[in-house]
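Form 7-S
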Amino acid sequence: QVQLVESGGGLVQPGGSLRLSCAASGFTFSSYAVSWHRQAPGKERELVASIYRAGLSPTYADSVKGRFTMSRDNAKNTSYLQMNSLKPEDTAVYYCGATRLGMTYWGQGTQVIVSS
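Output:
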């Protein structure tokens, strides 16, 4: 069964940090590009970061550059999103996706709330 399971979300104060994880199973993770998206209430889904394979540099949305760091560990079938200096506008449900040949598997999302 193909699965992507996000974890690590929660409530954090502005300026704080969270580390999200995306654990993949049921497919050859290393053959897929991995991305992180987020969707805030009433907003369109936004691409946050992506990486096509280990060894390449991730690509980031301008809104998170310098604050977020994406990585992937193919040996663990896991991708990570380290989020630092969090702002209230980072509040959203965060999703990971794995894409190959135009097809994307999606996780169910993990909620991040940045509030004081």
